[in-house]
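Protein chain data
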Amino acid sequence: MSGNQVESTSDERTVNNVMRHKYRVLTDEEKAAMQTVKDMGLEFHSTIAVLGESREVSLAKTKVEEAVMWAVKHITG
C-alpha cells in the first residue's frame, strides 16, 4: 500500500478517516469477518460489472456497495 493508505483491518485505520476519529480495536474474528464481507462484495460487484452498462446495472453495483458498507459498519460499530 502507498503511504497515504491504511488496510481496512489495521488498528491504524483512523489515520485517513475524516469523519470517525476513534475506533475500537477489532478482534481477529471481526477483522476476518470484515475481510470476508468485503471480498464477497467485490466478487459480486465484479460479476455484475461485466453484464454491461445500464441504469439497472449501476443500481445493482450501488446496492452491493451499500450492503458491504452496512455490514462493515455493524462489525466495526
Notes: Residues 28-76 form one domain. The mean pLDDT is 87. The radius of gyration is 14 Å.
